[in-house]
Amino acid sequence: MKYLLPLFMITTLLQAEADISFEDDFLQSLEEVSEIATKAKLNVDDSPSFVTVLHGNKLQELGVNTLFEALGQVPGVQLTREATGVPVVIFRGVSQKGEVKLMLDGVTINNTYRGSVYHYFDFPIELIERVEVIRGAGSILYGSGAISGVINVITKNSKNDTKNSLFISGGKYNNYKGGALVSTHYDDINIAFDAYYQNSDKKMDSNDRHLQDYSVGLKINNEHLTLISRYLRNERGNAYGFIGVPDTQKDKYNNDNDVLFSQLSYQNSIFGKNNLNIILGFHQYRQFGELAHPSPTVDTIVATYSEDSYFSEIDFTSHFLENNIFLMGAKYESVKDDKSEWKIDGTTTTPIANPDLKRKTSSIYVNDTYTLLSNIDFSTGIRYDHYSDFGSALSPTFALVYRANEKLRLKALYSNAFRAPSWIELTSNVNLEAEHSHSVEAGLIYKFNNSNKLKLNFYKTKIKDLIFKDTTLNQYIQTANAKFIGAEFEYIYLPTNNVELNFFASYLDAEDKDGDALANIANTLATTSLNYKLDSGLTFGSLLKYKSTSTRDKSDTREPMKANFIFDETISYVYKEFTFSLIAKDLFNSKNYYALPMSSTNNDFYDSQRAILIKSSMEF
Amino acid sequence: MKILTLLALLTSSIFALTIDDSLLKMHATLVPKIYLMDYKFKNKLVNNTITIAIVYKSSEYLSAKSLQKKINNKYEKGIKSYKVSSKLVAYKDIEDSKANIYYLLPTSKETIQKTVSVAKKNHALTFSYLKSDLNYGVMISLNISNKIKPILNLNAIKLNHINLRPILLDISTIFRQSRDSLLDIYNMNSPYSFKSYYV
């Protein structure tokens, strides 16, 4: 008996220790999933900004094919095209180049040359896990270019537990696409590789709008180190041309873009729950553009440009102080142009941008999110950027999130943002400085019940020192301001477990300094989508998009651009690992028209009409 | 209190029909571990293995596979001394299934209720992708708001004689489904049913 008591006590103690171990382990897992939720933007309703998260798989059910089409699912975003056929995303009425920042797996895509990102807009939806979009200013974390929006594309390749997949599709205009994503792991090292190729021989109005686009991406990571690398080539016809001379030949007058980037990052927890992140990267951009010339004596103008960028960033997120999430970071980037020339019929003339341009950028930023009360978060931060070639910019931000009750969230936000002038602009006018924006936003999120949720927000943005091209002076100048006042509305309704209805709309009043409406900006945009899933594996996805009329330039005497509706219908069938889809784009052949300059021989243009697409994919 | 819990139940930011892969990743992390929060889990294991049945309808097969892969990757070496095994079970085959945990992907109310009854026979935990399935007798789901919390259908847990560790109750949001509606789901609301023993 004297041995039984100690034995009982030891057993009890061991049992208690095991119990505590189970409990600690569970709490640790709960923290782990909280991090996943934050990274995947699952709790954006509580974040101190207005964020839209689009999921690649859901977009595929609605017949969305590319990143460009996906961005049409963001409230306040208008999709349009330049005369060259190049896709343009207008965020909250801002249609200049470079006011929207595009990032792919955290790597900035905007080049210094023009701030352009369009060469990534044909990226296939099949390789996209999700698209996170900050609507409005985001310079505090993302620096230059984050005036009207920040787009961060998260590829499937970037996930550790990604599924292997194959996809092919084909349809009108000899359009075909194929790609694959494969991943494996050796001990704690994950390796993922993706590749795709797509082609279209589109020709409309006898103008060449062909597209040849391909990319390969690689990710290797272990617990702390991640290497990502991607090469992309985007070659396209020039449609109505840069200077009003249409491109009528598929094999001539093309616009070719090549991009290569690599980024190595190190992430680790230090001093408990505090995170350290160090990034080193390289980004190379090349453009080769061939243009038809209006003069019969000149055959071809060729523009060749290339730039290399090296960057490093360090940031530290601390939870040292109770109820605070403190972030501080610094970034350094060095860019130089390698080649920059125009050739007319083989003879070199003036450079596109000044030769041997160099830009060194140093940035520091701090941000703190403080939980004032259990239902109020206050976030504030400031960023300072110094550019070696034109000056500096300061970007403060303040935000408040109030969880009034379990149904209602209220948000208010003030932020400044900026855009550094591009090298094309600085070459034209060395006196240019950064564009600056001041934005005020307020909004609410209301969840009626488990099936109904609405979001509503209002914003006012003023951009000072807007850079634009004065066609009389043939120079970029900075004498204008612009004002944007708008509202965005979203409503989500899930009547049953297999039906989802989404409706979103936006209204915008965009004015220049004289109070005149900005050209080619639609006041009202609206989209409705309906997903209906049957137990048999059939899914129906319907998408109806509306764009209101838009005014033209003051000097343009033509009628305003017409309003239009576009309807897409997608039927998908899932059988085990296979998915088959039949997509009807613009089913009623409404044609989405885009503006051409008044000087053009054509009156506006459409880029596509009714088209049927067949897709098949497999996951394994 | 009931209204408050109902309100809490309605605050999910996951507000979409399409299955979110990140949410599956979160569930893959928590589902096996939540089983260890049952004081008597050891008595219910066969071959020292926690068996998870991922129950799906045809259109969610890929999501089911994705979750299975995530669980297998995460718990390749098991949890502590326990093995973790997952299997895919179509809703149409649910009657013959055996598992310690049933993970339910979205389907109709009737099918959820039928699965809940099967799980009860197997003395298993039920965990659903959708929080709204707690209305149909599912025991556990996850509440995504500014803080991530499990949400527990306390009556469903009690009626299944599951005794959870207090810490789980402390950190979770509690959803209280009426016992009568639960007994309806278990087909126990007859004068000769098991119900009277609980009164």
Poorly predicted parts of chain B = 1-15, 189-199
Instruction: Bin the helical content of chain B.
Output: 25-40%
Instruction: Give the amount of beta strand of chain A, in percent.
Output: over 45%
Note the gap between the termini of chain B. 22 Å
- Helix content, binned percent of chain A: under 10%
Please give the domain count of chain B.
1
If you compute it from the alpha carbons, what radius of gyration of chain B comes out, rounded to the nearest whole angstrom? 16 Å
| Biggest sheet architecture of chain A | 22 strands, antiparallel, barrel
Q: Using the 3D structure, state the CATH architecture of chain B.
A: 3-Layer(aba) Sandwich
Shape of chain A: globular
Largest chain-chain contact? Answer: A-B, 59 and 56 residues
Classification by helices and strands of chain A:
mainly beta
* Large-scale geometry of chain B: globular
At the first level of CATH, the class of chain B is Alpha Beta
Domain module count of chain A: 2
The CATH architecture of the largest domain in chain A can be named as Beta Barrel
Q: Topology as H/E string of chain B?
A: HHHEHEEHEEEHHEH
Give a short summary of the structure.
The complex is a heterodimer of chains A (620) and B (199). Helices cover 9% and strands 56% of the residues of chain A.
